[in-house]
Write a structure and sequence with these properties.
The protein is mostly helical. Helix content is 72%, strand content 5%. The chain contains 15 helices and five strands. Helix 4 packs across helix 10. The longest helix has 28 residues.
Length: 354
C-alpha cells in the first residue's frame, strides 16, 4: 500500500470523528447548578431560618477551601497540610481591615484574600526548595510560625484573639444576609475562576503536571512557575474562606483559626469528592457538610464516622464519588476535549489538548 493511500485513509477516518468540548451533559449539569445557585439566592427569605443561613456560610467556605486545595494538590501536585496559615491570616486580616482601616465588610473580605495571596509569594520561594513529603511538612511548619507570630504581635489579642466590631449597630437580619450573599458570591466566583483557569493554556499545563510533571517539563511546561501560581491562588482562596469564617462567627482566636483540622477537612472533601476534578470538591463539600450537621452532636463518634466514610471511598471508589458517578464520560465543567464518532451519542475517547 502506498503512503499516499494510507494518508488518504487516515484523513477519511479523521473526518468520521468530531471534536467537541462539553456537550449535552455539561449543558444539563450547568443548568442544574445555575438553578441551585438561584434557589440558594432566594431561599434565605422563604425556606431557611437564620441559623440555617449561618450554617450555609460554612458550606460555601468549605467549597472554596476544597476547590482551591484541589487546584493545588489535584493539578499542581503540591500536597500542603498548612493552608490553615492563610485561613488564620485571612480571619485576622479581615478584622483588622474592617475595624482598624475602616473598609466595608465585603471589601475587607476580598482584600484579606489578596493579602494572603501576596503573603504566599515570598513564602513559596522558601517552601519550593522542598519536595514531596518535606514540602508538606514545611507548609505545616509555616502555619505554626504564622500562629506563633500572630499570638506575639501587639494588637492581635494574644491567645484570646479578637472580636469583630464593624457590625455593631447593624441589625442581625442584615448582618446575616450580608455575610450569606457575600459567601455565596465568592464560592461561585472561585469555582468559575478555577474553571476558566483550567480551560486556558495554563490549565492545560497543570493537567500535564498532574499526570506526569517530568514529562510535562520535557514538553516545555513551566512546572515550577505553574505550581507557584496555583499555590498563590490556593492561598488567596484559603484567605477568603478564613475571612468568611471570621465575619460569620464574629470572633477569631489562634487555636481556632490556625487549627490543622482545616487541612483534614480539605483532604477529606477532595478525596471523597474526586481529586483532580472541578466537580469533585463541590460534591465532597456538600457531603462533608451534611455529615457534619448530622453527626456533630455525637462527639467522638462523629470523627470515627468521617474516617470510616473516607476509608470506604478510598477503597471502593479511588477516583472519588464524582469519578464513580461520571466514569470519565460526563463533565459539568468540561476542561478537555472529547472525540465523538460522527452521528453517535457515545463518547469514543476523551483527550486534553488545545
Amino acid at each position: 500500500m502506498s503512503s499516499t493511500t494510507s494518508l488518504a485513509r487516515q484523513d477519511l477516518a479523521t473526518k468520521d470523528l468530531k471534536v467537541v468540548r462539553g456537550g449535552w451533559p455539561s449543558l444539563a449539569g450547568g443548568g442544574v447548578l445555575a438553578a441551585i445557585v438561584v434557589f440558594l439566592a432566594a431561599a434565605p427569605w422563604f425556606v431557611f431560618s437564620p441559623g440555617d443561613v449561618t450554617n450555609l456560610v460554612t458550606l460555601f467556605a468549605l467549597i472554596i477551601l476544597g476547590t482551591t486545595w484541589n487546584l493545588m494538590a489535584g493539578y499542581g501536585g503540591l500536597v500542603s497540610i498548612g493552608q490553615q496559615a492563610y485561613i488564620g491570616a485571612g480571619g485576622y486580616g479581615v478584622i483588622k481591615l474592617a475595624d482598624v482601616v475602616g473598609l466595608p465588610i465585603p471589601v475587607a473580605v476580598v482584600a484579606a484574600g489578596v493579602v494572603c495571596a501576596l503573603l504566599a509569594i515570598p513564602t513559596s520561594f522558601l517552601l519550593f526548595r522542598l519536595v514531596g513529603g518535606y514540602f508538606a511538612i514545611g507548609t505545616w511548619v509555616v502555619a505554626e510560625v504564622f500562629k506563633l507570630v500572630t499570638q506575639e504581635l501587639p494588637g492581635f489579642g494574644g491567645g484570646s484573639g479578637l472580636s469583630l466590631t464593624a457590625f455593631q449597630g447593624v441589625d442581625r437580619v442584615t448582618r446575616i444576609a450580608t455575610v450569606y450573599y457575600l459567601a455565596l458570591a465568592l464560592a461561585v466566583l472561585v469555582v468559575l475562576a478555577t474553571y476558566a483557569l483550567m480551560r486556558s493554556r495554563v490549565g492545560l499545563g497543570l493537567t500535564a503536571i498532574r499526570d506526569d510533571s517530568v514529562a510535562a517539563a520535557s514538553l516545555g511546561v513551566a512546572v515550577r512557575r505553574s505550581q507557584r501560581l496555583v499555590y498563590v491562588a490556593a492561598s488567596g482562596g484559603a484567605g477568603l474562606a478564613g475571612a468568611l469564617i471570621a465575619v460569620n462567627g464574629l470572633r477569631v482566636s489562634p487555636d481556632s483559626m490556625f487549627s490543622v483540622q482545616y487541612t483534614a477537612f480539605m483532604i477529606f472533601i477532595v478525596v471523597i469528592g474526586g481529586l483532580g476534578t472541578i466537580e469533585g470538591p463541590i460534591l465532597g463539600a456538600v457531603i462533608f457538610f451534611a455529615l457534619q450537621q448530622l453527626l456533630d452532636s455525637y462527639g467522638t463518634w462523629y470523627l470515627i464516622a468521617l474516617g470510616a466514610v473516607a476509608i470506604a471511598v478510598v477503597l471502593l471508589a479511588p477516583k472519588g464519588l464524582w469519578g464513580l458517578a461520571a466514569r470519565g464520560r460526563y463533565e459539568v465543567f468540561p476542561v478537555g476535549h472529547q472525540v465523538y464518532p460522527q452521528g453517535s451519542p457515545q463518547v469514543a475517547q476523551s483527550v486534553d489538548f488545545e
